[in-house]
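S., here's the first fold you wanted:
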Amino acid sequence: MKSRRWALWMFLGLGVLIVLVILLNIAIRRNSIEPTQIGLPLSNQTTSTVPVDPTRETQRVSDMQRAMDAFSVGRMLDFLEKLTSINPHSGWRGAGTEGEAQAFDLLQTHLNELTWLSDHGMTIEKESFSIFVGTQDHTSRVILYTGEVSAEIPADSPRGHRSNLDLVRVIDSDGSVTDLEFDPVSVSSEVVWIPDLNALKDLQGSDLIDKVALLNYAVVDTSIELSLPATEAANLLTDLEPAAVILYTDYSNVNGASHGTFLGDRAGGFQNATWKKRTPLLFIEVENLSPLGIVNSDQLENITFAEVEWDMDVINPAPSGNLIVHIPGPKGSKPVLLSAHIDSPNSPGALDDGSGSAILLEIATVLNEQQILPTVDLYIVWYGSEETGLFGSAYFTTTHSELINRLQANIQVDCLTRPVEGVPGVVNLGFSQYRGDEVSDDPIGRYLEKQGQDLGIDTVTTFWPFASDNGSLSAFYVSNLNMIYESQEMSEIYGGVWYAGHMHDPYDTLERAIEMKEVFGQMGRLTLSAAFIPLEEQHMNARELPHQALFIASHTETPQMSPTALVWLTQTLLEGGYEVNVLPYGSKLQADDLEGMELVVVMPPYDFAVDDAAPNFDISWSEQEAEIIDNYAQSGGNVIVTNSAFRMMLFSNTADYNEDWSELNTLTDQWQVHFTRQGADSNYYEASLAGDDFELAIAGENAVVFSAPGSTVLAGTSDQALMAEIPVGNGKVLVLADLSALADNYNGSNNPMLVINLLKWLKD
């Protein structure tokens, strides 16, 4: 009897044990990281979990709660007041200007006060770079008269075109680019008021000559629908040869009414206008006219006379920079990058992107005040020159490629908005080109969604293929998103979020930020939560990259001609197991730089040459550098050499002429490859690579054709080659006439077969 009972108990015990094992296995599976949850393609992913330490988790929750409680909207608004007071009505803190430099100084002053963090390892790094063009507003002075009454009115000058030097040159008061001497243009004349398009059309040829045009900006506002395109309207005015143009706008929060979008930034239709002579172009706000007894735009007819003083200098190239803070996290933590841009679009820029800049500073301030270290290895970066083409973030990827390869996530805060009345807004987490177009594909998006729920913050997560500086991280498969107060309704309004949300207009002021202070605090606390990602959850962007690739950008000043813009190529290399490294502009190539590299990609030589003068940096390839590349190839290395007839911007857009294209011959002549001329005869060529035939798509005007006698020509002919392969010792060199063949347009790669076959070429 006892033996039967014993056997029964043994059977029951074994059954319980089996059930416990099954349940334990289910629990482990549920708490494990599925490969599809991690950022990189499955072939390159590693999955691991860190056991939860209850003590550590309790401390993390406590620290985060203390930080949240200490987070101060008032302190952020105080900083915004200082930030928006920099260079008022004199360019504010536009990209590449004194105002931008002063903004960085203001940030650094505040950061230097964070002594507890400094004592615990916080470092501050400043880096400098050049952008293609900046505009320095020295004097924009306007005195208006209504009869015997006069008053000086706050005025500013538009920045103009962002990349076309011929178009931006017309807003230079002396016509000499990079001449920063004080030499103002003065105009004193009667005023002709132009309230609408009909009034502009009614003007005769002599009505404006040598007079000051007081023009309603709505007539040339590109963000509202008019019967006449904005540029055409601007040309109507310039044809009449006024002595000066004063644009005016007034505040509106009503959908359908102009409130000056892009007024200071790109000047609406005047961005592309054709000027017959050099003409002062300035803008004012009606709200500043009360000293003249004017309280609305209908009273502008009372203005009879104007005195204008205008001194605007275009700088080519212009100085800019980034400010980088590193707060070390605990051992084993993964880096997280929080970022914003400090420059403004020639407006006070309280919302865009003073709000993001203030949030980042407040996060550092709270950590210092509460003596809390983050649970992640935290980087906080304020970028310069976002508004001119993501220069700051693109440059950052070239100088910090080692960090980029380790990053688990990037959150860009750009920016708070103030929607027009009746239009809703929501905290939008716009993720960008990570693995797919669903939030389930993006780790940082999922994490912030959950934090928003825990904090009681309404959020929406959307796929934005391009948003802000965070997009510069997309090529590197770093989980990234842009946080902005925005909505689908705002996007659907004509003119988009800029028109619907007081961005890039004169009314992007501290007052707008105060009106939105509740949302301001929500966005700040949500961003702060990223500093407290649990250590066991820091698995984003986990990957194994056994191979090494180096992009040589040391002779290429524009950061948009680097891996950050070559999204398809860079992601394909990562999928193939290649870690992407960059040798940044201005570096001198050393043999040690190529150690361990299985692929070297040479970017086209290009610098922002000073107009009508010598280049600011010698971007020529030296014979010593050419020898280093040759020795690398001889020993079995793979080299891709690219050229470009123009400077390339985002999405493969071409800009100014590249006078440096022939400098590449110092490198290629040793392989009997010689670049001969800019421009190809076609945009499409039959091509072959790694045994596959396909159509090579290029931008014909951007190609620099080359002669390649004795080489294997893969596209074109031996004397007008577009692509060729040259065996060099135990290695090989692939020469490509057009960098844009490897780049992306807005909707994806132009040449998927070329990029895919490059991996096969490497394996072969």
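And the second, which I think is the more interesting of the pair:
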Amino acid sequence: MTEPILPRPCDIPLFRNEWSVLLECAVPAHDRERIADLLRSADWARLLILAEAHGVSGHLAAGLRDLEKNLVPPEIRQSLVDRQRAQIFLSMRLTAELFRILDLFTTEGIDALVIKGPALAARAYADSATRSYGDLDLLVRQRDIRRATELMCAAGFAPAVPLTAIDAGKIPGQYLFSKPGSQLIVELHNDRTLRYFPRRLPLEEFFARQVRVKLDAREVPALSVEDEVVLICVHGAKHLWERLMWIADVAGLITRQTDIDWERVANLSKTVGAERMLHTGLLLSADLLKAQLPENVHAIVRADVSAARLAHQVCQWLPAASYASPSLFQRAFFRLRMRGDWLTAPAYLLRLSLSPTEEDWKIGVDAEVKRDGFLEAVRRPLRLTRKYGRNGKG
């Protein structure tokens, strides 16, 4: 007997009721009565599909947890429990691996900061199990990348960027490591790899402002909350805010962290040229998930008409969760507008279009790496055209 063909979120009207449920569940202080009311017109199969596509199954589970038992079918509750249990086990493994990597780096004098992932989950959500993540992200200075790669290899990880590429001066989108036979993935970043920031990150300032975040019974070095706010807004903009989880992260972080220095947030966003990316993320979190901003911040964000237009555009494709991805032209135009003025925006888009990443090198771990930057730069826009030339999930 063949399995029934389930609809995909690209059929946005079909998922309208389920989308309303997800939005309310992702609100930091969600309304139980409203969720119960919205569920009466929702289809459970479509709701689970949409939650998974948006990375908010944990938010859905949290929103349904305290509802009357007769409102949620037993098999749905069990499905959510199973998914959350799997995420908890993965998070425990990732956290244990994080501790080992940090200890390994410390013994070799390599500084690292935890970004996103477990540190964000701990600070943005009352229950860190709400936030699903499948890898570890660390900030590491470029000068330490080669030694860090050697240490990761010795620890049993396979590098996506071989030492030959590092020695040749290649700069990837991230230094990715995977452990064979497991789900463990680690990505190292720095001011050279995080190219979606319009201007280079003040990495040394990030290290100087670092804080300690408690994970389990241990504290780990992490970004300050202010730096994290800007980083996750740029990260969401990089992905065109195609998944609700990225907006929920912003809403959760600014809601739970009540002592944010908003002047520092504004100064950093100006330093890296990401004011509009920040404003768009804050608008989405406020309008869709009811995040509360200080009055002065709210006024500044609302005054950014271009950010409001970007947020409106995001809302057109957001419910589809990247199953109806923007076209190549839409992506390019969005990136132009999110950068800001029409003098710097074309240069920003051109840099993104012509800066090769590991996907453009076409090399293997044992392959000879050549400094063929010109051909790689030419090859990149052709690859992007093939990847995003037509609508649909990439």
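Why I say that: The first helix runs from residue 16 to 26. Confidence is low (pLDDT under 50) at residues 363-368.

Talk tomorrow,
H.
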